[in-house]
Design brief:
The chain is an alpha/beta fold and about 325 residues long. It is about 35% helix and about 25% strand. The protein folds into 2 domains: about 140 residues, 3-Layer(aba) Sandwich (Rossmann fold); about 170 residues, Dihydrodipicolinate Reductase, domain 2, CATH 3.30.360. The chain contains 10 helices and 15 strands. It has a 9-stranded mixed beta sheet with strand order 14-13-12-11-7-10-9-8-15. Helix 4 runs parallel beside helix 5. The mean pLDDT is about 95.
Length: about 325
Amino acid sequence: MMRVGIIGCGRIVEEGHVPAYRELGVTVTALADPVERRREKIGDMLGVPSERRFADYKLLLGQSDVDVVDIAVPHFHHHKVLMDAAQCKKHILCEKPLTTSLRQADQVLDAVAGAGVQLCVAHNYLYQPSMQLVRKMVQQGAIGEPFLIRTEGLGGSHWDGAPEFNPEWRTQRAIAGFGCLLDNGYHDIYLARALLGEVKTVTAAVSTEREEHEVEDLALALLQHEFGTTSLQVSWAVSGGGQWVYEVYGSEGTLSLSRKSGKLMHYRGEWKELKAPPWEWGFKGLFSDFFSRLQRGEPSPVPGAEGRRNLEVILSAYEASRTGVRQTV
């Protein structure tokens, strides 16, 4: 099994990555975070020796017993840490988004290729059990030919950062780069691409509804794919919490998944509730797949080019909103 070093000890690591590593029995040999309380918390959870908990991530990159680095820092820092990790010839697991610009993404892809290492972008919802069930049913013809996806992620707030760091970082442009579309809508877009093929054009309306937010907190987008259309709504500004729904419509039926309740409904002549797996992040499946492929010498399941493409679609949505012109991707 690969030996992992974690760079960034925020909430997504605490609540998503750590449980996956524990279940898989992965050895985390080192971690890095500038905030001491976060280093101590995650280090204690994973049994990382105190002398292997670094304030400077570059010290971690110099460790010979780190095969893979798990990068989970705020968006603005991705590019720098990715470039340094590639230079040190470490395999890389990186939280989404890959970077916040295509120029940076291209630099990362070049660096990774030049170093001869593998990069896996954390498109973890591809491995989320209930979403895997939806994809499997669609592929098996449960709704005929899919032609429309409707995804709705309307919430009243963003997902807070760790209290010891900065709970509001996702709403601050200098750290996050962008808002709810890049942070939440990102998942919906790669899921839609997996079912309906590549995105060809994007139309969008993006706005900031709360004055305390420096980034967008409302985004509506219409994506035209090779084999259908996606309607996407995502927000951090909806009073009352809103809905979290993922629906796939086909020529002969519909699948509707409530990501809030976990209820999965199937329509084919009549509505039936299906037994859906309990909700989980999907990191266990993603990590297991990536590490197994590394050991077999196989390519990453979610290579950097996939992360770049998803970012390209999202940046095209921002441009469509800014100009009022449909964008070809």
